Amino acid sequence: MERLSGLDAFFLYLETPAQPMNVCCVLELDTSTMPGGYRYKRFHAALARHLQAVPEFRMKLADTQLNLDHPVWVDDEGFELRRHVHRVGLPAPGGRHELAEMCGHIAGLALDRDRPLWEMWVIEGGARNDSVTVMLKVHHAVVDGVGGANLLAHLCSFQADGPVPLPARGAGPGHPLQIATSGLMGFALRPLRLATVVPATIRTLAQTVLRAREGRTMAAPFSAPPTPFNGNVTRHRNVAFTQLDMRDVKRVKQRFGVTVNDVVVALCAGVLRRFLLERGELPDTPLVATVPVSVHEKSDRPGRNQTTWMFCRVASQIGDPAERIRAIAKGNAAAKDHTAAVGPTLLHDWTQFGGPTMFSSLPRIPISRSPAYNLILSNVPGPQTQLYFLGCRVDAMCPLGPILGGA
Q1: Are the C-beta atoms of residues 376 and 289 closer than 8 Å to each other?
Q2: Domain-embedded: residue 169
Q3: Spatial CB neighbours of 204, under 8 Å, sequence gap ≥ 6
Q4: Can 44 be counted among the known catalytic residues?
Q5: Sheet containing 307-313, strands listed edge to edge, beginning at the edge strand earlier in sequence
């Protein structure tokens, strides 16, 4: 068995019927490259052959009332692939609008916690006869952004007829007594862990005060202005896709001497500014975005989510696009430096002490005049070479993250 970290379990505890913690990826596939030609049964069989290399697809949650720690992952001895793969047809005319509506519906459906926490939806009937869209949905307790990319890598290859990856070891079984005993040991060690985390937190707070005096801090949580899109959410999701030429993004990057992430934030800031101006609801102060930051290469903590968050001002109050992107770049540089000073493990360490009662109450807290943040912004570098998903050429890849109440 494998114990969930506090950060992994955080996404379980935070989940509500209106707030499913699903991490999704939409892949548009060219089926003309599939060896032997595309047939759903052939596609399904190819997936079955690859599953032995992806233990995340075969493990499920296990817990007991005597467990004083977070739940564990165990191998699902009754695993059935057919319960996780769904075949659906796209309504006519089968365009981007219909696809976006279907993806929004799928993203809002919670996963069954009695089974491994993932689903794959094979969406047929698009405008092109030689295309299929696949939507892969995995619970955030299983993967973060980087983990999701690594999971996808086991289903992809650089050639249409690439080899099947080697089997990987699973989480193993877990007896209720074993779960309770190891949970008791973990609970007993919490005071020792707290004695380590508190001094690190005090040092971080002291450093933040010094940075604030010098104007070198990221945006503070709960400093975001209220907007019409910061409120309670339902499980219904609206999805939209767009594409940009990376060469255009890099031209802007080079022109202003900024990063690709700065350009992405500036694009979003401009769109949000226009939207709020048209409604007559643009705040005088900048919107605040929270940006997930991967710490996989810096953290030595266990768990599948290796992430921290930084808070960025998106300069939505600035009308001039050139001035806006410069302000964003300056703010992002300070936010990155501040996040690095906080360290890669502080968030992970504190979530170890939280439980379902504490975290499950967060979605029910009334949203104040100053939300924790206004929106989530994330961008992940895509593959640099052509990929084939179970033999089908990948033409596009669009990630969809969970939506939290208030943002």
Answers
A1: yes
A2: yes
A3: 341, 342, 343, 346
A4: no
A5: 307-313, 288-294, 375-376
- 256-314 pLDDT, tens digit each: 999 999 999 999 999 999 999 999 999 999 999 999 999 988 888 889 999 999 999 99
This prediction's pTM: 0.93
User: Based on the domain organization, do 121 and 225 belong to the same domain?
Assistant: no
The amino acid sitting at 292 is P
Task: Tell me: do 23 and 145 sit in the same domain.
Answer: yes
First-to-last alpha carbon distance for the chain, in angstroms, is: 35
Same domain (yes/no): 107, 133: yes
Q: Over the Cα atoms of the chain, what is R_g?
A: 22
**Where do the DSSP E strands lie in 126-283?**
131-139, 156-157
Q: What percent of the chain has pLDDT over 70?
A: 96
Q: Residue 399: helix, strand or coil by DSSP?
A: strand
Structure tokens at 397: 């890849």
Domain that holds residue 154: 2-181+383-400
Q: Which of 70, 84, 139, 140 is catalytic?
A: 140
CATH number for position 90 = 3.30.559.10
Give burial (CB, 10 Å; 0-12/13-18/19+) of 148: buried
Q: How many domains does the chain have?
A: 2
